[in-house]
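re: ur question from yesterday

yeah so i grabbed the chain u mentioned. its 205 aa long if i counted rite. heres the sequnce exactly as i have it in my notes:
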Amino acid sequence: MQRNLLKQISLTIILSGFAFSPAALSYFYQKNTFQQSKPAFFVKKALVSFQLEQPRQGLPVRLKIPKISIDTTLEYVGLTPEGNVDVPAGPFNAAWYELSPRPGEKGNAIITGHFGWKNGIPAIFDYLYKLRKGDKIYIEDETGTTTTFIVRESRRYAPSAGSSDVFVSNDERAHLNLITCEGIWNKTEKSYSKRLVVFADKEIK
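ran it thru and got these structure tokens back, copy pasting raw so excuse formatting
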């Protein structure tokens, strides 16, 4: 790996419309010049894949988690005009953050989804908290190939907590991290009190 090409970028993840962490970090590789479209954030076309030394996976199209009855289409999201990691358009789909690795490639692939949608409407990750170590997550790609991930652990973060471990992995393995909100709704701050991240690892056969 070309360690001298690592760059740190501060990201704010918005879930259900609210900030995840002002201190969250994401790392990107680039062969030559690091470019920015806006202060402190990337242009997608300026990015080089995380996986410079391996074949690309197919683009993810579907997320399946039998334990909590999820079988949903994946949207693709990047950064909002404000420089935040975007989220699905509505409560029913999950979204792959397309500036992260494709699921199955080395590094931390990121998928976000809503929790606690308004007016009692169910949201895709309402029951993400029920996942336990050993539960399986399946990602189907555009070629029809399914990649299996095994849940390792869940962690809860305060909205202001640093969370570089969500985005950064240096162990040369493929991971999948699912992110949503959790906790108590604060009407004044218009945010939930916690962020839930489920960490999963690609199944080794």
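noticed a couple things. The first helix runs from residue 164 to 167. also The radius of gyration is 16 Å.
anyway ttyl
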